[in-house]
Design goal:
about 300 residues, alpha/beta, four-stranded antiparallel sheet, 11 helices, binds adenosine-5'-diphosphate
C-alpha cells in the first residue's frame, strides 16, 4: 500500500503568466516516495511546476500537499524540508566547496558546529567531492557543480527533492556519474526529476508523468507504461523520401536517422505487413506515442487494464 502521508499530492493546479501564456492547465498528480520522472519537451511547463512545488511561485488555482503540509500556504515549513536543484546552479566562484556548503548549512538551520561538520563531510563524500573540497568552485566542471548542487539540496535530509533538468549541460561520463548519485538517494523521500531526456527517466524512475503544453498526458508506472505497448510497436528502415508515404498509411511514433537510413517506429495493434518487424517497446516509444496522441487517450487505468489482460 502506498503511504499517502508521505506522498506529494498536486490537485488541479493551474498557472497563467502575466503575458497570457497558460503554462499549467489543471494539473493533478500523486507522487509517491522514490524517484519520479516528469518528462516533457521544452516549454511543456516543467520548470513552472517545479518552481511552484519549490514554493518559489504560486499557482493561480489548485492545491499541493506534501504529507500534511499545505505547500501553497505553509511555505516556511515546506522550505525546512525541501531540497531544490535548479537548472542553472549558480555558485560563488571564489569560495571552496567546503566553505560554501558550510555556509548553506548554516542557512538551513544547522547551527551546531560539530553536527554541521559531520553533515557537510557526509555530503561531500556522497557526492564524490571530498578530495576536491578545498578547490575553488570557479574551477569546477559542469558535472562537479551539479554534484555540489546536489550536496546543497540534500542538506537537512529533505523529504522533497526537486531536480530540474539536471543533465542538460553534462557530458556523457558526467551524466552517468550524476544519475548514479541520484539513484543512491533514499526511497524515503520524494525525488522529482524534471527532464526532456527520456533515458534519464527510464534509467532511474519507478513512476513518471508526461507533460505537454501544460497538460499531463500520461501518469504511470514506468514499467507498466512500457509493458502496455508490448506487441504494438513495429519498425522498418526506409529511404528518407519514403517517409511521407509511411506517415500516410501508418501511425508513425518516431523517425530517426541511423547510419544514413531512416529508422521508423510505428504503432499498430495488428501486423502492419512484411516490411515491418516487431520490436520490444521502450520508454522512448511510450514518450513519442503519447506525444503524437496514439497512446494519448490512454489513462493510467487503461494501462493497468491492458497490463492485466
Ligand atoms: P519547461 O520547463 O518545460 O521548458 P516552462 O515552465 O519553463 O517549461 O515554460 C512553460 C511555458 O511558460 C512556456 O511557454 C514559457 O515560455 C512560459 N513561461 C515560463 N516562465 C515564464 C515567465 N516568467 N513569464 C512568462 N512566460 C513564462
Amino acid at each position: 500500500m502506498e503511504n499517502h502521508n508521505e506522498s506529494l499530492l498536486i490537485r488541479k493546479v493551474s498557472k497563467t503568466y502575466a503575458n497570457g501564456v497558460q503554462a499549467l492547465h489543471n494539473i493533478s498528480l500523486t507522487i509517491p516516495p522514490g524517484m519520479y520522472g516528469l518528462l516533457g519537451p521544452n516549454g511543456a511547463g516543467k520548470s513552472t511546476l517545479m518552481r511552484t512545488l519549490a514554493t518559489l511561485q504560486e499557482p493561480d488555482q489548485g492545491q499541493i500537499f506534501l504529507g500534511e503540509l499545505d505547500v501553497v500556504n505553509q511555505k516556511e515549513e515546506v522550505r525546512q524540508t525541501l531540497g531544490y536543484l535548479p537548472q542553472e546552479f549558480g555558485v560563488y566562484p571564489k569560495a571552496s566547496a567546503e566553505e560554501l556548503l558550510d555556509y548553506f548549512a548554516v542557512l538551513k538551520g544547522l547551527t551546531n558546529r560539530a553536527a554541521r561538520k559531520e553533515a557537510t563531510e557526509t555530503l561531500l563524500r556522497q557526492t564524490n567531492l571530498w578530495d576536491k573540497r578545498k578547490q575553488k568552485l570557479g574551477g569546477y566542471s559542469g558535472g562537479m557543480r551539479q554534484r555540489f548542487g546536489v550536496a546543497v539540496a540534500l542538506l537537512g535530509s529533505p523529504k522533497l527533492l526537486i531536480v530540474d533538468e539536471p543533465t542538460a549541460g553534462l557530458d556523457p561520463a558526467e551524466r552517468v556519474r550524476f544519475l548514479n548519485l541520484l539513484s543512491e538517494l533514499g526511497e524515503n523521500s520524494v525525488v522529482i526529476l524534471s527532464t526532456h531526456i527520456v533515458e534519464d527517466v527510464s534509467e532511474l524512475c519507478t513512476n513518471l508523468a508526461i507533460i505537454h503544453q501544460g497538460r499531463i498526458l500520461l501518469e504511470a508506472q514506468t514499467q507498466q507504461a512500457v509493458a502496455a505497448l508490448q506487441g504494438k510497436v513495429w519498425r522498418t528502415f526506409l529511404e528518407k523520401n519514403k517517409l511521407p508515404e509511411v506517415q500516410r498509411e501508418h501511425q508513425v511514433i518516431s523517425a530517426k536517422l541511423l547510419g544514413g537510413r531512416t529508422l521508423v517506429h510505428i504503432y499498430s495493434q495488428m501486423d502492419p505487413g512484411s516490411s515491418f518487424e516487431r520490436v520490444e517497446p521502450d520508454l522512448e516509444d511510450v514518450y513519442f506515442s503519447t506525444m503524437t496522441g496514439f497512446y494519448g487517450q490512454t489513462n493510467p487505468q487503461q494501462i493497468k487494464e491492458e497490463v492485466q489482460r
